[in-house]
Amino acid sequence: MEMLKVGLVGGGGSDSFFGRVHQRAACLDGTRQVTAGALRSRPDAALEAAKAWGIRGFPDYRALVDAVAKGDPALDYVVIATPNNAHFEPARACLDAGIPVLCEKPMTFTVDEAETLVERVKAGDVPFVLAHTYTGHPMMMLARELVRRGAVGEIRKIEAWYRQGWLATALERGNQKQAAWRTDPARTGISNCGGDIGTHAFVAATWVSGLAVKRVSARLNAFVTGRELDDDFNVMAEMDNGATALIHATQIALGYRNDHGFRIFGTRASLEWHQEAAEKLLVRRGVHDETYWLGANYEYFPESVASYLRVPAGHNEDFFEALANLHTTMERLVRKRRGEDVPPPYDHPGVEEGLAGMRFVRAAVTSARQEGAWTDL
Amino acid sequence: MEMLKVGLVGGGGSDSFFGRVHQRAACLDGTRQVTAGALRSRPDAALEAAKAWGIRGFPDYRALVDAVAKGDPALDYVVIATPNNAHFEPARACLDAGIPVLCEKPMTFTVDEAETLVERVKAGDVPFVLAHTYTGHPMMMLARELVRRGAVGEIRKIEAWYRQGWLATALERGNQKQAAWRTDPARTGISNCGGDIGTHAFVAATWVSGLAVKRVSARLNAFVTGRELDDDFNVMAEMDNGATALIHATQIALGYRNDHGFRIFGTRASLEWHQEAAEKLLVRRGVHDETYWLGANYEYFPESVASYLRVPAGHNEDFFEALANLHTTMERLVRKRRGEDVPPPYDHPGVEEGLAGMRFVRAAVTSARQEGAWTDL
Amino acid sequence: MEMLKVGLVGGGGSDSFFGRVHQRAACLDGTRQVTAGALRSRPDAALEAAKAWGIRGFPDYRALVDAVAKGDPALDYVVIATPNNAHFEPARACLDAGIPVLCEKPMTFTVDEAETLVERVKAGDVPFVLAHTYTGHPMMMLARELVRRGAVGEIRKIEAWYRQGWLATALERGNQKQAAWRTDPARTGISNCGGDIGTHAFVAATWVSGLAVKRVSARLNAFVTGRELDDDFNVMAEMDNGATALIHATQIALGYRNDHGFRIFGTRASLEWHQEAAEKLLVRRGVHDETYWLGANYEYFPESVASYLRVPAGHNEDFFEALANLHTTMERLVRKRRGEDVPPPYDHPGVEEGLAGMRFVRAAVTSARQEGAWTDL
Amino acid sequence: MEMLKVGLVGGGGSDSFFGRVHQRAACLDGTRQVTAGALRSRPDAALEAAKAWGIRGFPDYRALVDAVAKGDPALDYVVIATPNNAHFEPARACLDAGIPVLCEKPMTFTVDEAETLVERVKAGDVPFVLAHTYTGHPMMMLARELVRRGAVGEIRKIEAWYRQGWLATALERGNQKQAAWRTDPARTGISNCGGDIGTHAFVAATWVSGLAVKRVSARLNAFVTGRELDDDFNVMAEMDNGATALIHATQIALGYRNDHGFRIFGTRASLEWHQEAAEKLLVRRGVHDETYWLGANYEYFPESVASYLRVPAGHNEDFFEALANLHTTMERLVRKRRGEDVPPPYDHPGVEEGLAGMRFVRAAVTSARQEGAWTDL
Known about the structure:
The structure is a homotetramer. Chain A is an alpha/beta fold. Chain A has twelve helices and 15 strands.
């Protein structure tokens, strides 16, 4: 089986860490490799970074897309790992050139841009995967399948959350570039905490449950003095089936790392999952609690999920493997288009989920500016 | 040291379980005993129940209070464990007769009643303790002391919750009397879930933090068909220092038992506590996580809390011991009034907290009826 | 129902804590009370302590037993909470006088004494319960019932342990009286760690599994300089069905509290229980893990265990309630003899288990002195 | 930085899973790739497998080593992932040819072979890393560094264990090839459970503590009927400083996955680690418990460990990343020899630890055959 060739836009800065994370996730299975990139915003820095990485460098995404369009290099898909405000242009350019895209979240800077991407994807029928890393975790996929097969019953209530503590102080005033761009409206958009990690909670609440958010009432805080954007994001949501969802995220929870997860309460069972102990899914039906474990040897994984597992239970697959699973989905989409015989790609979040996320954040910001008035998506 | 004599109003029904729980909590330390009671609403049943318990029986609370007022029996305090709508009258009668009261929560049926009790307690200077059982747990007391001593810094955000699953189906239509009175507006008041367990979350959010709720935006649900009152209760609250609190409770979380707890995020530390693993308190300051354990041998308990501990660490004190601690507080209040030499009673929730809880529930119900409009307490 | 009257031998010293623990366990249910005692070894101190406790005092156990034999006071049973070397005499005296005994563990000072008690109990048909507190925990009882009903299959291997850290330093050289008598061969016997907590591990391995230890190979250590007796106790055991058991205990595990528990591996299921999280029992059958929770509302408790439960799930019953359950068993034995209608007493450890424990410790000490040579019980 | 080229001997069978695991671990960081292999024992199968993998194939290890010795392909190191009985020959051949070796454990089939490898490595000064995967986990490395820096004090006792349930039934009689070769003395050697997973427990007990096992007393069981080799392995060990270690492993613990871990009790602190929750290390010093978390942002990692971390805390690195760390160590050894500027390679287990492990298993088997007689290594 021929290796897939992957391009990377962004992610090559010395303070960036997500470029290397994508590289590792791409490489992990030995069936894909990162071979080209426009790794930084300054052309000379971009070329220099590529050299340091040992891949073919381009001064900017345009040059990369143009070259790919001409067939050299022949990339199979492109990963976009730039800051939020620089997702849209390269994504659109790739799609216009027919190049599949694996794009970081939140998908775009504005809802308008997101709508444009939806149109392009539909028009061009080009694979597009949104890099909500956690959705690549098999236990999150299993939770979704349990809902789909009716094991949870009708869903009444959802909790989805993401607690971090890294922005509890004004890190952005120091030399921390991650903090600097994330708290800067010009690069991040209308929401920091909501856009960055509130969208993960949103995806957990919607993608796993199969429900859409209809309207929201929100309260956003900027607790750290001098911060323009939210570092705390709280949403009460009404789902399209009438369920209530509490969707909340914070960056000021001192000492918390990436405490992301969800609870789903249905008429037949409750589900509970915690990202920091991602190898287990708690299922409660009332008699006693059941813990489902990650592991290729467990028959409770439907084939759609099982085909993503790498090892027997007890040896955890975690962050890199979850992201690698999104690359696997992209790989399957690409190989399937080529006519190769691959297992079916799982329906991981794509451009529609990306648009919904953008609308969710916009509605939350609007609601918060109006004292929590209920706002439709 | 002479045993204290305790009276009990309510709690003697065959389906009731809290009467026996209070009896056990009263007895536990060997310094208090339940000796008299008006245990049920029907006079003959009340007398019969007392006989079965082996204590002196009274047909109703009035007869009991009258007798105590005349000095026979000489009760040191009275526990009120009736349904919500029957707290006020006996409580007022006791206070008017100068009898100390340990009253179940929520304190009263209406805010007006609660205000009356506040007046009476102030006027008569009679001890009054509100039976928010969980506040008797030493780790919850320790959390409060950590806040008081500044270890948590300025509080920015609070989460307080209570998840149960026992009302996920329409139990009240069967033969379950607990479910029947709790879902009946005539006996429970304007809120079922909020009044019963939302108040526990409220007390965690306020009593531990030392902050008051200023205003709320609420969403209440009655998920089970035919239910008039809420079985799901969600509040976004603004605290008096500007902090945000998520205070939520539910009774439809299938398979959840008494998943009560809180997180408090301050500028110096975060605290996290779970009632179902009540022996530990998680303290996060940023370097590594610290787990504080319950245990008489640990020097991190201030004397005010340490005087409530019964055994060295590793042998958990739990539900009965927590409630017994509220009896201990009442015992100390009573003995102190008599001039006995006792350790200082801890400032457990009393009549003011009870009033605040009633106002909180009322404001939440009002807000929920107006689509979550922010409502002052 | 008339209250049972309980006598207490020992446990009244200012440094003792187990006397008060038994008092609380006796009192908890409101059906038993401690009314008389010979609380300390020095007659005057014994009388003084009784006065302070507010109970009828006796200068020594003989005086107490003589008085009870004459019917005043009319005690229903006697609790023996003296140091190990002072269990036998009062126990024998009570049995000879026909007084039921609830005796602390290890049962006696020597195997000979234990054999004598077995004879007396058999001869006199007097109730005798051994106070292995943890066996009173309903989840430990449930584990035993699961084994009995065949849910675990044939048992192949057992792990039972008890880790403490309180003797990691030479506490006995300071003013710590608990440490002083426990490390003193004259008062403790041939083994400190083994006798004190190794016996708990032994009971877990045998009483829950229904298997007997046939022979042992042991290694004992006295890590703290100057200590004559073991503070670390390790046994490899062969069970009567051919299973292997690792039974180990230590007092030098710095920072460990009362980390007691067991794992039982059978051909149908594995069981795992931890005393410090005593409210749950982990059951593994291979498909997914199941957690069974303590709680009066769970139908998986057989009636023999369910009759010991006090509250619905989610409100833990713990140390005091577990010990209270042993008092409940004694109470049922006593009331049954009187012809009262009570639920069947559970077969908690008694004189036979006490003898087995003494033989186990003796065999372990013998083996350890011979470089771990396999030694029959 | 040029990619390292890696060769693979074994691991290419359809039932094998460790070949692919090594491939992934090699690939993960994007600085190494598997380019050649002698993947199976039958020459034609070996060539076919290599074709399927898309790497250069060799009929057997000899052909591969000969080719590398001639410089084509130019491999930087070779991974040996054959069954136990086929480690030695290819390892020796590589060493003789000056090719660095990353070898699966247990290192060899016999102690003699292990001694030979030690000589060759010493003589040739060729890098040799033993693939004890778990030692690649940063928290296990951190534990070792805490011991080294004296934070644990003098070590008194160690527990190290590995519990699995996959061989609780006679899988080897079915079509399970992993089970077949592991339970076959001809391919596995004198011990199944001890050699396969007992050695992991041995390495945890010795490599982390810095102590050597002096002598052992062992009890081995073959619980499943018809099994010649142990499926349960229990060792009491005396360490060279006088400490006692319990080292035990089992494959019949129904429902257990890879429950590997250790506890180390010292005079200053206790350490506890569980492979299935590998991201945390529990440190107990007596005041309260401390949990150390995996994460590149935590300053408590000494540089020697920190240089192996890939992401900030809260995104777990697990099984693949741990094994990748052993490849990283090999990569650093290789690059350092070439004069490249790399961080210091960590002293992960090598040929000496491999020999010690072989001697440990031999001594345990010898002891078990003599009723647990103490046997020197």
